[in-house]
Amino acid sequence: MAKIPLYYVFGNHMHWVDMQWLWGYQVLPDSVRDMLKLCVGAGARGCVNFDAVGYEKMAAEAPEALAELRAAVADGRVEVVGASYGQPYGLFHGGESNVRQLVHGARAVRRLLGVWPKAFWEEEFDFFPQLPQLLRGCGFDNANLFFQWTWHTPHVPQETAPLIQWEGADGTRIPALAKTALSLHQWPEDFDGILDAAARGGGAGPRALVQWLELMPSPDWMCRSELLLPRLKELAADARFDFRPVTQSGMVAALADAAGAAGPPVRAYRMSEIWHGMSLGKNGDRKIRQSMDAENAILAAETAAALAGLCGRPYPSWDVYPAWELDEAWRELLQAQHHDNHECEGLCGAVGDRSFERAQSSADEVLDRCLDALVARLPREEESDSLLMFNPSGWTRRIGNLEVPACGFAVATPEQNWAGLEASVIKQSRSWMLGAAGAGAIVDRKTGSILEVVSREVPDGIALGGGMQAPVLRAGGAAIPWQFEGAKDEGDSLALRWRAEGATLCTMRLTLCEESAGAILVVQASDLPPLDPGFGGALELFFPLPELRSIVADTPYAAGPVEAGGSFLRKYPTGDWMTSDQWYEKVEQPLYASSFLDLELSDGKRLAIAHDGSGQWFQRPGGLACVLTLYDPWDEQRWSSSVEAGFLLLPHRGRKPSELWRLAQQFRRPMPMEAAAAGPGLPRSFGLLRCEPGNVVVTAVHREHAKAGEHVADYFGGGAVRNPFVLRLVELDGEPAEVVLTVPGPVAAAARTNLLGAVIEELQPESAPALHAEPPRADLPIRWQTLRFRMRPREVATVMLDLEPGRHLPRHLDQHRSVWATAHKVGER
Question: What is the pTM of this model?
């Protein structure tokens, strides 16, 4: 009887974040050597899945072990998989953070291990609909969708076919190993019964055995080569199978050949089929908010630095662009986004806090320096109380009658109505009305319930069921009632106060958003009692919407229709996280939204809800519940008894996802302001670009140093452009687009590239009318130019530019040698 082909691959997952922090400097070197011992002892090949920051640390701290790993990679015993810089739960972070995770990680692997990563496989949950496109754009050619259960319990549909074509939001496909019955966790016990089942079922085709390992040869750890070798040797000797150890890329290639002309089945998994398996919402989503704030700060600093450098000398930094400073800020953020800083918040989260803080403070310093430089360059003919308002977003923003160009600034004078809406509270017999210019909210005076939200587009308002009240608070398995203490008129806002047993206080404050004219609801709760563990004890804000028809929500760099998921499991420890028994909670109908939901009601009205970090929602009878905070037993004693969460509520009649995405980002990214002395002749505004049509959004503007392309074939400009401009664009409405991008030229070179900077398509600039009447500098006249190209629905595009006005201008210090050359001879004169 012919033996059954049995392909086997393992992934060895380990990381500098958390593991080396807590277990010591030997973690990554020892893991490498134990992996190589396993390969020799079992005649196996496999994959290494370290955070790329870990490879950088090995280069500095354990170069001999890194050399051994590099040799194993070079001879094909080991393949690098995953290769993200900081192993994040990508779903929980911004689209641009996910791009930089892949780019910084891939560059580190190429620099230190000599290869570009080609196989994506992360042990912890890293899934979102745009990921196949981003992987392809970073040079990956295969993937793996088996995520191991550790502290979290992710769910991906189980397949019978071992290989699928994973299709992303834009239609990009990448061959991927599927989660199957032969996907094994790191325990030797996971082999029990698996091989018998593999021999009995599966037809005549090859079998694919995929296993996660976390090798660390320490008695303080559970996964070691000495425990696994006996089972792997049994596997290799099993007479039923033709044992074929391979790397991931080898397995994908073999299974693709076996699939024949028909090819693997196509799978475009919906978010309702996927469950991240995390206690999202724990401690008020503190880690998510830290990540969001730091990412926005870095993006703003990058845009400001690109703008300031284009305006000519004197530069805010010595160089035309502070590439190293901003790269370091990204590295701090990317390692802080590591799954263990979130998942193991009680264990190592405090260390991750410091990285978030360093990322934020570094970016804030660059931003402040750039804005100060811009203000200093403005003509000052008389003193005034003007403000320079900086718009870091890739689209024009308006407050009142002040228009601030995309990636630019505008100067607001006291005579301009730049302050926007002036809200007021109107007391009626049975209600309060907070409103201005046709927008606002109505509150029941007796119960404090928010009855209705109103906007200019929906003047008859949207009723919130029987009224939206204080968040649901539970303890001991029962709801704790709130007592409404009344409302306080704060002039431009209305504060509703609630109190529960003991000192627990909740304030729900209503204001109006100056840019969108929507209602802002900020919920603050303090002195919370100990909550029951898990989602069952979560503090939830319920939005009563009984006539809900459909939902649109966003994920990183995408937006589209979603449905609530089914029933999933979440596990928790009963005590010590390492040794105690575990229990399971059933999680029903979860929803996730990165920054907004758009809800269609039965009467054709729509309610958009943007949030500032509370991404976990549930569909419940009569509406939606948002998790404000919960207690996660994995965190043991770490628990935050207070929370603050903000929401933007905007009734409308058909705004597109691209517009709602912009509004959600504006809600989370206020425009920085800097005092400016203004006078006659002062340039009132200037921006870096204009992008049309509206379904395409410019999401990031930065510059790279030419070093970024040192190992990239066909890198933009052949590496000769010292600091190219890099623009990221995303189509969000699911519609094709003829993009018209206007930029300040002359444009010496322009191209569409992949995420690493390799040229895909050269772009030819055309002359364009000036975007602004007043140029930012007189020494080098700007000639505005337009670039035209097509984008497919939900495409993420990268455009790189050599803008002549932004080129580095040397100082020619030889002309000032007298300042330095004889200064030390002052005593000899």
Answer: 0.96
Structure tokens at 766: 């055309």
Give the DSSP letter of residue 17: I
C-alpha 353/C-alpha 341 separation (Å) is 8
Task: Tell me if the bond preceding 744 is cis, omega within 30° of 0.
Answer: no
Q: How far is CA 614 from CA 292, 295, 592, 621, 694, in A?
A: 11, 16, 9, 20, 27
Whole-Å CA distances, 601 to 449, 454, 595, 608, 653: 20, 15, 20, 11, 10
Average pLDDT over residues 811-820: 81
User: What fold characterizes domain 4-269?
Assistant: 7-stranded beta/alpha barrel (3.20.110)
614 token code pair: 């509370």
| Partners of 119 in beta bridges | 81, 142
Could you read off the pLDDT of 241-280 as tens digits, one per residue? 999 999 999 999 999 999 988 899 999 999 999 999 999 9
- How far is 730 from 558, CA to CA, in rounded Å? 8
Token pair listed for 540:
């939830």
Cα–Cα separations (whole angstroms), residue 274 to 555, 584, 594, 789: 13, 18, 15, 34
State the pLDDT at residue 681: 46
Alpha carbon distance 208, 251 (integer Å): 8
- The answer, yes or no, to whether residue 381 has pLDDT greater than 60, is no
> Tokens 């907070």, residue?
434
Give the span between the Cα atoms of 304 and 757, in whole angstroms. Answer: 22
Distance CA 612, CA 594 (A): 9
Band of residue 417 on the pLDDT scale cut at 50, 70, 90: low
Name the CATH superfamily for 424-667: Golgi alpha-mannosidase II; domain 4 (2.70.98.30)
The counts of H helices and E strands in the chain are 15, 48
Residues with Cβ < 8 Å from 238, sequence gap 6 or more? 6, 195
- SS3 string, 568-587, reads EEEEEECCCCCCCCEEEEEE
Q: What is the DSSP letter of 211?
A: E
Provide the phi-psi class of 601: left if phi over 0, else alpha when psi is between -120 and 50, else beta: beta
Judged on CB neighbours under 10 Å (0-12, 13-18, 19+), 738 is: exposed
d(CA 828, CA 562): 80
Q: How far is Cα 819 from Cα 102, in angstroms, rounded to an integer?
A: 46
Domain extent listing, the chain: 4-269, 424-667, 702-829
Instruction: Provide the sign of the torsion angle of the four alpha carbons 754, 665, 739, 654, taken in this order.
Output: positive
What is the residue-wise DSSP string for 131-149? HHHHHHHTT--EEE-----
Q: Where are the beta strands (DSSP E) in 574-689?
A: 582-588, 590-592, 596-601, 606-611, 616-620, 623-629, 643-652, 673-676, 685-687
Is residue 680 scored above 50 in pLDDT? no
Locate 680 and state its tokens.
């006659």
CA distance 661 to 609: 11
**Contact of 98 with 134, CB cutoff 8 Å:** yes
The tokens 């700007």 sit on which residue? 782
Q: Residue 464 is inside which H or E element, if any?
A: strand 462-468
Indicate if the pLDDT at residue 571 is higher than 80.
Answer: yes
Show Cβ contacts of residue 781 under 8 Å, excluding neighbours closer than 6 positions. 775
Q: State the sign of the Cα–Cα–Cα–Cα dihedral 455, 458, 461, 464.
A: negative
pLDDT at 132 over 70: yes
Q: Are 292 and 357 in contact (CB under 8 A)?
A: no
DSSP letter string over 234-260?
A: HHHH-TTEEEEE--HHHHHHHHHHHH-
Local confidence band at 202 (pLDDT 50, 70, 90 cut-offs): low
Do residues 710 and 116 lie in contact, with contact meaning Cβ atoms separated by under 8 Å? no
